[in-house]
Amino acid sequence: MKIALITGASSGMGREFAVQISKLYRNLDELWVTARRRDRLESLQKAIPIPVKVFAGDMQDDELFERIGQALEEEQADIRMLVNAAGYGKMKRAEEVEMSEQCGMIDINCKALTRMTLLCLPYMSKGSRIVNLASAAAFCPQPGFTVYAASKSYVLSFSRALGAELKNRKITVTAVCPGPVD
User: Of 92, 84, 181, 62, which Cα lies nearest the Cα of 129?
Assistant: First the structure.
């Protein structure tokens, strides 16, 4: 079964990737989406012309990764595209943001992205693509956006190195680095 898997698909760039991929990739059997807000994923499911499998849950919870891993194994999925769009940022001086929020940004923007990528790699083959949402903030320190910018620097560096590692497998890795978006 040929699939695309998108994290953070309930809103923003993740949702837009889901809409566009379903239009542009004609050979997909299913689109798998994950985010915390089930209602938004179910709404997305109704708006997309191909079958959509919903995995509602928090990217900080082991249970979500276990469900996705089990489904990948059961379906013997062929992941044609992985889009790691889950992430967030808090725009304040580092000392003004709660430590739990700062660590949460690292957990989602770095750890969850890495974990999802490593979970999916065994199900990717020649011609598969990984798209990681980084940020223009990845290119230099950002006072007032300290942890976010640092986490997105990780995404950019991880993507570049992983792309080099996967070149022989002919799997493409792209770090998307947009500026501010609605």
Answer: 84
